[in-house]
Amino acid sequence: MEFLLGSYRVLDLSEETGWLCGKIFGDLGADVIKIEPVGGDPARNIGPFYRDVPDAEKSLRWFAYNTNKRGITLNIETEEGQGILRRLVETADFIIESFPPGYLDSLGLGYSRLNEINPELIMVSITPFGQSGPYKNYKATDIVAWAMGGMMYISGDPDRPPVRVSVEQACFHAASQAAAAAMIALHWKESGGEGQYIDVSVQECVNIVNFPEMYFWDAAGYLAHRSGARRHHANITQRDVWPCKDGHFGWRLFGGRLGAKTNAALVEWMDEEGMAGFLKEVKDWQTFDLGKMTQEEADKWEEHLIKFFLQHTKSEIFNRAIAKEMHISPGFTPKELLEYEQLVERGFWTQVEYPELNSAIVHPGDFCKFSETPLQRLTRAPLIGEHNEEIYEKELGFSKDETILMRERSVI
Amino acid sequence: MPSKLPLEGIKVADFSTQVVGPLTTKYLADCGAEVIKVESMYALDLIRVTIPFKDGIVHPDRSYGFPRLHTDKYGVSLDLKHPKGPEIAKRLAAWADVVIESFTPGVMKRRGLDYEEIKKVKPDIIMLSTSNQGQTGRYGTHPGWGFQTLALAGFTHFTGWADREPVGIPSAYTDYLAPQFAVIAILAAINYKRRTGKGQYIDLSQLEVGLLFLATALLDYSSNSIEQTRCGNLSSYAVPHNAYCCKGEDRWCAIAVTNKNEWKTFCQILGEPEWSKDDKFSTPLNRKRNEAELDRLVEGCTLNFTAEEVMVLMQSKGVAAGVVKSNKDMWTDPQLRHRDHWPLAPPHPVLGSLRCPLPPYKLSKTPAGIRMPGPCLGQHNEYIYSDVLGFSNEEFVKLLNEGVFK
User: Which helix (H) or strand (E) holds B253?
Assistant: First the structure.
């Protein structure tokens, strides 16, 4: 079978910030070689772990974002290691890295040097703030990138500190944008261009998520701030997240044609149960104008609606929403997602074999469905140095004795 | 050597509205693709009728959001419900390499514009449909906006404090993570077509793409039956790890201390207060156990400085820290300014010059640029229908009079 990017090779030198970028290429069928430092990527030691056992070979985050890659170890801080990397670059189409700006240059492995070896090479650097500018040497973890990209200030309860998302997010925005940028560079190269260097800033990638708030300040001088499960719309603050009997769901009250169908169906349901109350006074939802609502009224509506929602479970609300085509979606937990019929029917969940663990683990599957060229079926992430022999001996032609010596010298 | 815009030559007929499709084609257009946004005054793009408006006057050409999401695209109006609408849409598709749409699944088929139909006029077309939950499956046609998908995909469950209701991410979150995958999918399909001559159909589910961003937590459930939940700003591997209140009104600095050396440096920066030597905080485990107390003590220090001062103090010694920036702060952020991330676009006919975001990547030889703000409704009808698609004057006027271009 021919894959979308079956003829390309990617060297993935990235730390966790870039893992997803390499994985995307692997899913598209490219030959992705994950290059880890000797002993393995330090981020393998961050939990959670399979069966909750801390072990560099059992990191679930490693498992999740390094499928469809081969793995080798290489100490690029040794001259010998640098020589090997340069040899690998000769046959590579892409190289992905996420070291601090200037680090690879200092090892003689910067873009200008690698470009001399392979002018077709597309090099992608992912760093917290990019390769230039006053913050270029600043460090960032997820919480710092979320803060500096503008997403954190608006998230959380007003009486507590701003919050990030409890599962790290910033690096995935950056890694997926980096993959898109690399595809753009590939298109140009294949159109008669050449290789080039791509500079991706995590801060800028997070900032895109904050896009509407950005122009709300610029155009309307509106300072967005955090207001719990509520959001500011027009002149009022109202909920995006609503509680119900056994959890929460997503819905926003809209006026006019946008909200008419949902609002009418909701009030009809409430009326069936004798709980519509003053909401029945709205005669025409098509002309219902949220812009005329005061905050006092909005609060009264909220209280009234919540009384009704607390009588119903997520699945009751969702079933009604489906039947009446209402703009309401349940707030799922991981368990509910794994069991969600829609995802099961689409074959989204993918079983990945882990022979070393005598087990299989269900992973999220394809990021898109392609009619002609299915994505590469997921194979588990590489063990530390799993493909050293394959790459160093079979491909680069080192003898067994040489690789043993290289291992002893901590080159591989 | 080809042009200096990397995607020049790619032609896109864009029937999408709102955010996912438009942001996808914005990225493509800013990189040189020729994108025609097809819309109708009878079914206005939601963003055209969303606040804020210039002078508060509600009008499709006065929304400040729309032109920023549609930079570098041409705009035509076309009523797909008009008897002749689909036929014109097919002529656009025949011109294009890529068709993109974001209707509720089933709508394009009802208009006779699904992949099978479009393939008849353009056999090697690449067509991408983006929707909340994909084109198939029992709930594929359930209507949804990004802030709903946010809940559906589990992000709401994961945002907020453990002892409180979830707050969710205040954004139509999946709308801003799906577009890059659409770009990847389209360009991978173009690459494949270059080799094989074959087009194809791409089904993007915003829910499914979103789940890639929660994969670790999903694996924790699928392999360990552990149902993770929101935990405020706690981190499994960093402590202190929070946003700390600073001098001023609602000013905060995020700080993450991830290892022994950073902890030592962090304490030095704070002037090695007595408490920092307390056994309660001597190891990561002890700091984790007493994290709430530690947070209060750290905040006792940060409150004496501005958030900017705390950031600089920390960063100058190599501790990760960053001002929790408001939407106002972002406009004066020295880093974004230096990198010209929101350059000034050429003037919009109604709104004047607007700062619009570049795609968040800098290609050294073929950088993206903003050459046009988003179009007014039907702004390029004559150019596109006559000059690009080659309609005769007579035909154009006839169709215009019949009300097809509305």
Answer: strand B252-256
- CA torsion angle A47 A50 A54 A59 (round to 10): -50
Residues with pLDDT less than 50, chain A:
none
In contact, A368 and B207? CB cutoff 8 Å? no
Say which amino acid occupies A74. Answer: L
pLDDT at B1 over 60: no
Q: Which residues of B touch A163 (CB under 8 A)?
A: 159-161, 167, 232-233, 243
Is B148 an interface residue toward A (CB < 8 Å)? yes
Q: How far is CA B298 from the centre of its chain?
A: 35
Q: Which of B370, B160, B177, B184 is nearest to A156 (CA)?
A: B160
Rounded Cα distance between A30 and A28, Å, is 6
> Is residue A183 less than 8 Å (CB to CB) from chain B?
yes
Beta strands in B40-140 (DSSP E): 73-77, 98-101, 126-131
Q: Is B203 a catalytic residue?
A: no
Contact B139 A199 (CB under 8 A): no
Does pTM surpass 0.90? yes
ipTM > 0.95 (yes/no) = yes
User: Which two three-digit tokens encode residue B158?
Assistant: 């994961």
The CA angle B276-B281-B286, to the nearest 5 degrees, is 175
- Write down the pLDDT at residue A234: 65
Of B217, B336, B361, the CB nearest to A334: B217
Provide the pLDDT for residue B2.
64
Strand partners, B202: A370, B128
pLDDT at A322: 96
Which residues on B lie below 8 Å from A135 (Cβ)?
315, 334-335
Calculate the average pLDDT of chain B: 96
Q: Are A304 and A277 in contact (CB under 8 A)?
A: yes
At residue A91, the pLDDT reads: 97
B327–A24 CB contact, under 8 Å: no
Q: Tell me how far apart the alpha carbons of residues A347 and A374 are, in angstroms, rounded to a whole number.
A: 13
